[in-house]
Amino acid sequence: MVDAPVLRIAFFGTPEFAVPTLHALLRSRHPVVAVVSQPDRPKGRGRHVASTPVKAVAAGAHIPVLQPERLKDAPFREAFSALQPDLGVVAAYGKILPEWLIGIPRLGMINVHASLLPRYRGAAPIQRALMAGERETGVTIMRIVKELDAGPMFARVAREVAPDATGADVNRDLATAGAPLLVAVVDAIAEGRAHEEPQDETLASYAAKITPEDSEIRWNRPAWEIHNQVRALGSADSAWTRIDGARVLILRTAVEDAQQAGVPGEIVEARRDSLRVATPRGVLRILELKPADRRAMSARDFLAGHPLPPGTRLT
C-alpha cells in the first residue's frame, strides 16, 4: 500500500520478551526512530557488562539507543523530546513511565502486556498466572495511562497454558504472539480505524513483582501449588529448599499421587532417578535441581553423590 500512513515510532524495551516486537516493527512500514532500554548491567559469573537484548537488536539495525539511568534526567528528556515521535511502543521496558513522557508522542503510547487484561496488571503477569495455576493467559495491546496497566485495550490474543509449561515457555509464546498483534494495532492507529475498549475494573487483579519470599518452598502446601511455583520461577528466580541444611534450587518437578497425603517435606523415595517428596496433598517428584556452586543436574546424578534415606525432611 504505497500511500499507507507511516508513524515515527519510539520503542521502549529491555529483555528478550521485547525482541520479537522490535523485529516486527523493523519489518513494518513504520520507522523506529529510537530505542529506549535499561542501562547495561553486569551479567554471568564473570560479571561482565552486557548489552540488553533490545539494545543488541537496535545496534544491529543502526538505530539510536537511549539508556537513561533515570527517566527524569534532563539530558534524556531533551533527547527524547527532540525525536518528535508519533507513537511510543513499550514491551517490557521495566520502569513506570512518567506523565510527561507519555504525553510527548503525538498519538500517545501503547504497551504489549503479557496477560489478558484486566487480570494480572503489574510487573510479573506470567509468573503470577502460572503460580495461580491458570490454564489460559495471553497478550493485550493497551494504551498507557497514568494508572498502572489500566488503559483502554486495542486487541487481545489468548493462549492455552499446558500443565507443565514453564515461565520461559509462556514468555516465548506470548512474545511471539504479541509482536504481530502490536504491528496490526500500530497500522490501525495510523489509519484512524483503531478501537479502544475500556477495561472492566471489577475484574482487575494485580501481579506483584517477584520477591525473595516467593522463591522459598513451603512444604505445607499441596504438591500442585509447589509445582506451579517451581515452573513459574524457572532458573531466574528459582524456587529453593534445604536438603540436609544446604540450600538447593529446584528447577523442574512433576506431581504424582495427587490425592495422597503425607508428612510435609518428607522424602518418601530417593533411589535411581526417583526423588519423591510428600506434601499434605500429593507427592512431588523432583526432576532437576541445582546445589549451591554446582551445575544443574538430574535427580539421578544428585542422588548418586548425595544419598538420602526415606524419612529425610526438606525444610
What's the helix and strand layout?
Elements: E1 9-13, H1 19-27, E2 32-36, E3 41-43, E4 48-50, H2 53-60, E5 65-66, H3 74-83, E6 87-91, H4 99-102, E7 109-113, E8 121-122, H5 125-131, E9 136-143, E10 153-160, H6 167-190, E11 206-207, H7 223-237, E12 239-243, E13 246-256, E14 267-271, E15 274-278, E16 283-291, E17 297-298, H8 299-305
Parallel strand pairs: 1-2, 1-6, 2-5, 6-7, 8-11
Antiparallel strand pairs: 3-4, 7-9, 9-10, 12-13, 13-16, 14-15, 15-16, 16-17
Helix pairs in contact: 1-6, 5-7
Explain this structure.
The strands form four sheets. Strands 5-2-1-6-7-9-10 form a seven-stranded mixed sheet, with helices on both faces. Strands 12, 13, 14, 15, 16 and 17 form a six-stranded antiparallel sheet that branches. The chain has a two-stranded antiparallel sheet with strand order 3-4. It has helices at 19-27, 53-60, 74-83, 99-102, 125-131, 167-190, 223-237, 299-305, and strands at residues 9-13, 32-36, 41-43, 48-50, 65-66, 87-91, 109-113, 121-122, 136-143, 153-160, 206-207, 239-243, 246-256, 267-271, 274-278, 283-291, 297-298. It has two domains: 9-207, Rossmann fold (3-Layer(aba) Sandwich), CATH 3.40.50.170; 212-305, Methionyl-tRNA Fmet Formyltransferase, Chain A, domain 2 (Roll), CATH 3.10.25.10. Helix 1 links the parallel strand 1 (9-13) and strand 2. The chain is elongated and about 70 Å long. The mean pLDDT is 95. Helices cover 27% and strands 27% of the residues.
